[in-house]
Amino acid sequence: MAKKKPKKAKQGRAKAAAKKSARKVVKLSAGKTTKSAKKTNGKAKMNGLPRPSTKPYGQDGKALTGVRILDFTHVQSGPTCTQLLAWLGADVIKVERPGIGDITRGQLRDVPNADSLYFTMLNHNKRSITIDSKHPQGKRVLDQLIKTCDVLVENFAPGALDRMGLTWEHIHKTNPRMVVASVKGFGPGPYEDCKVYENVAQCAGGSASTTGFRDGPPLVTGSQIGDSGTGLHLALGIVSALYQRARTGRGQKVLAAMQDGVLNLCRVKLRDQQRLAHGPLTEYSQYGEGIPFDEAVPRAGNDSGGGQPGWILKCKGWETDPNAYIYFITQAPVWEKICDVIGEPTWKTDPEYATPKARLPKLKQIFARIEQWTMTTDKFEVMNTCNALDIPVGPILSMKEIAEEQSLRDTGTVVEVDHPVRGKYLSVGNPIKLSDSISEVTRSPLLGEHTDEILKDVLKFSAKDIAEIKSSGALSAPNKEGKAA
Ligand code: COA
Fold first, then answer.
1. pTM, to two decimals
2. Alpha-carbon span 89 to 107, nearest angstrom
3. Which of 178, 241, 342, 357 is deepest in the core (most CB within 10 A)?
4. Catalytic-residue membership of 227
5. How many other CB atoms are found less than 10 A from the CB of residue 104?
């Protein structure tokens, strides 16, 4: 939205202030493009420091331009990682099995014959080439890709890459600069050979045992912390390895195990495991209910994981709307405001309620009283009232509400994408915003859509070579007789 221009008097004051600060800025930093600074420095960099971008927010090139990724990923964990890198500007070449492709293309299909949303929402901004990685001519193409790319990313079952002949030794010999990044279910140890999916990782990483209610079974969460969470970890490992390569000239192996990634996201529960040795976890409602703790961290329902107690409370309409709830945090610094808003002003000074310590054993009762108030009004009104008082609360938003939320569209966090087969659909855009870098979202590729352009423009195969490779059957699905199509 365009900002209003300041009035003349204001402009004068602003100019004077800018001039004053510009004098300071020229000495201290090159961060401002004031007139005087420009004059002093001419074309050269000011004080040896770079100037700020002259382009609008997020429009000055792509962060990972020049990085080329050989994307051997499938399903979710690996594709999330390479999609992030693609959004940040890397050229991601997705290698898929001829005729089949990434298995998610056909999983949970909602539109006949169109790539599923599962696939399209995890493979934006990529190019697709089909290669039978076990065919001699396919290996020839892959070796050329290894020579040309900076990073190979894969999340096959343990040993699958080696069985294709793509051992670390082979890759490193072919291209010593290549970073080889893998997602596996487990790191080295007793389970290293296991295949793993999202919920297995949530269970093995400590999330399921600590999610849910104490008197119910372990629960998996709706967030894909095992898959997408590990993809995020891997992406950080990759850019770190590229940064180190800039110093050493050498690639390295990057491993993100899903169990490790989940555990990293559950670290507060490992914190609590150790605190148990020194007494009960007083911020867990179990403590206030007088129920003794066992040896392991229990499930804590909707208790807050931090030092400020919180709980999910009903709001007006909860009887019919499953999401008419709000997360309410009784943050200590705003306790007095909470007392006023719920109509319990005496709790501000009553020693039974006035301090966080005194409140701990009574959290259930306190939240029940707050809920009497939240049930009188809808979740957005609770949000408005509390935010105005600096009381931290969060409405429980349904996916429908998120899909329709205009502010998420405005920031590009939710985007509408057009696809030649399925038409328009919604997706989550890049959640990481960089002030200089362009981060656009383009549709996922059709299976093998870019095979020809990659062979010709990226790998520089001659027309004769391309014809030879194609006729060998290495890039196409076998026909019904099992012969190359
Ligand atoms: N050309 C020829 N063969 C190909 C190929 C290609 N382009 N792409 C894949 N294949 C082959 C593999 O070589 C492998 O064959 P092999 O076992 O005979 O050597 C085969 O396809 C299957 O690969 P695999 O990874 O075992 O797939 P899967 O469907 O059996 O298992 C997972 C799926 C996800 C369980 C498994 O890949 C895994 O555990 N990955 C690591 C953890 C992970 O990322 N899990 C999260 C998934 S969201």
1. 0.89
2. 28
3. 178
4. yes
5. 21
DSSP character at residue 80:
H
Which residue in the block uniquely carries the two structure tokens 């590729």? Answer: 445
**Would the CB of 156 count as within 6 Å of ligand 1?**
yes
Give residue 220's Cα distance to chain centre.
Answer: 18
| Residues 265, 227 contacting (CB under 8 angstroms) | no
Partners of 230 in the β-ladder: none
pLDDT band at 4 (very low <50, low <70, confident <90, very high): very low
* Spatial CB neighbours of 78, under 8 Å, sequence gap ≥ 6: 71, 72, 153, 154, 155, 183, 231, 234
| Ligand 1 touching residue 183 (CB < 6 A) | yes
Ligand 1 site, residue 245, Cβ cutoff 6 A = no
pLDDT tens digits for range 423-465: 999 999 999 999 999 889 999 999 999 999 999 999 999 999 9
**Residue pLDDT, tens place only, 336-369:** 999 999 999 999 999 999 999 999 999 999 999 9
Q: Retrieve residue 445's tokens.
A: 């590729």
Q: Which residue among the candidates 102, 132, 150, 227 is catalytic per the annotation? A: 227
90 and 67 Cβ atoms separated by less than 8 Å: yes
